[in-house]
Amino acid sequence: MITRIFQLMCIILLLAGCGINSKQRIPEQICISPDGSKIAFSALGDIYIMNLDGSQVIQLTKSSYWEGLPSFSYDGRYIVYVRKSKIESKGSQICVIKADGSSFKQVTQYRFMDTFPSFSPDGSKIVFVRAHWYRPYSMGGYRWDDFDVYVVSADGSNERRLTKEGFYAISPPRFSPDGQKIVFSAETDQIDHHEIFLLEKLNSQKEEFVLKRLTSSACYNAEPAFSWDGRLIVFISDRTCRYNYEIWVMDRKGKFLRQITNLNSYCLNPIFAPDNENVFFLFNPEAGQDEDYELWQVNIYSKKLQKILESFPIP
Length: 315
What we know:
Blueprint: H1 2-7, H2 9-15, E1 29-32, E2 38-43, E3 46-51, E4 58-59, E5 66-72, E6 78-84, E7 92-98, E8 105-106, E9 113-119, E10 125-136, E11 142-153, E12 160-161, E13 169-170, E14 174-175, E15 181-187, E16 194-201, E17 209-213, E18 221-226, E19 232-237, E20 246-251, E21 258-259, E22 266-272, E23 278-284, E24 294-299, E25 305-309
Antiparallel strand pairs: 1-2, 2-3, 3-4, 5-6, 6-7, 7-8, 9-10, 10-11, 11-12, 13-15, 14-15, 15-16, 16-17, 18-19, 19-20, 20-21, 22-23, 23-24, 24-25
């Protein structure tokens, strides 16, 4: 169980409301700039940006709050992220800064646990996850629960709830490049089954979405993300071997699933490169027994693997 929790650090750091270890070296989430030259990531409770080769590391946030889970705007000018209150019951809020760390703006308030934000293609909206209920936990203490997907204008106005499912957990929701769809994964029961869902606009002119289920395999399918041309969705799954999380690809309708990696370990946080052929992801060769995650790249057609960074150069 400890290994399982550790492996899913990207998700449970906020969802379970655990504290942040000051010695932690794991990047909690990575995102690639639209031009493929920069990586933004969160670690040690702050947000950093660096070149793809690991050079020129710049710390963008430095406050008394835990700040993380960054995501670039489609033009690369802004980063949306999460700021977590010191008081667990107050939850967390969505914030935006410029990619140089300036022009801080708070988007949501400390009323709920707001997490996993990302921009719409035109930058006018932010999709995010909200937990509504801070409840007693069966293993002791309290935790946030009852998760759904929301969207809000980038200035903080026009907040709308898109799902009313009360999921047990949700991974980051992401817009399609045309802004007409939102893909995410959610835990549909309490036995660790995660499935991938699609929110699709009923009318391109209206903000009305219909919820569709893309996977149904009674295993762990999570962390989906669109390719930059919107044709494919990359995600992680342990459908071939329980708790071995490999990179998979399917089309935008949930068809033609293909396993891309066969590393027999933990692959996390897959993100398409701008060329729509390569996928960046975090990889732990020790299957969760070690704290160090490496940055890898895989070609979805040749399945050729390349290690980009052996460790994240956090100052």
